[in-house]
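Standup notes
- HV: blocked on the assembly model, inputs below
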Amino acid sequence: MYTLNLPGFDLELTAQSGQCFRFDKIGDSFSLIAQNRHLIIDPISLGKYRFHCSEAEFESIWRPYFDLDYDYRAIGRMITKDCEYLARAYAYAGGLRILRQDPFETLISFILSQRKSIPAIQSCVRALSERFGKPIDENNFAFPEPETLACANVEDLLKCAIGYRAPYVLESSRMIAEGKINLDALNQVGDEELLNQLMRFHGVGIKVANCVMLFAYHRMNAFPIDVWIERVLDQEYPSGFPFERFEGVSGLIQQYLFCYIRYQNVTQPL
DNA sequence: GCGCAGGTAATCT
DNA sequence: AGATTACCTGCG
């Protein structure tokens, strides 16, 4: 157990932000499968958390995973009062952190995400892990390796309710297993090249590629545009969003806007 | 039974 | 280039 203060960090918001599909809320606590581990986190009070792991594990694994050393205050200073809508979004979602997730898991998860709700994506990812992943403990399974999915039968994949995305998952896994694309090597390339390389995967378009860039490669300027963000841009920025003003961190802005519009939709649905 | 949910690729014009 | 359409599956 390791309890500490992490001022400004909002675990609940981060867990339900849609960037990661392996959080479960159990009572007041959160269960997470990542890094080939299973982690329980108890919120104690505002900005204070108890991690069910050693201090050493927290510092070496989870502090980087939760991106706790990135300076999120800098972007807060960029969002001034004249930003109006964005300032409100930031007031709500400023505690969000961009997780540093595994590229393969992120790639496959977002290939699955098309035409699916978040709960449906979660259940698909869990099914894939239970069927093809390495057991971590009695009830929890790591996300499968590319080599395992590359050898899977289509029927077994279809049992995970992934439907027409099965060939996408299979082919992408094969490309990686065969070394046609090296996901680790992509850490070294620039944003534009990374986008192009990711879009070589069948089933990966501009939106999914940007999600992988932001959530797995921590490219803070990647700006995924889905139906929700499209609505925000249409309704709140009819004359265009000032991307130049947030050059380098527009992906974070996207996350604030995304969480805020979804929150509004939950609390006061149309 | 029908329409839609955090899209993509193929196939039009 | 831009618009249209089919597509697995689960849920209301």
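- HV (later): unblocked. Chain A is about 45% helix and 10% strand. Residues 78 and 246 of chain A are 8 Å apart (CA to CA).
- Next: hand off to the docking folks.
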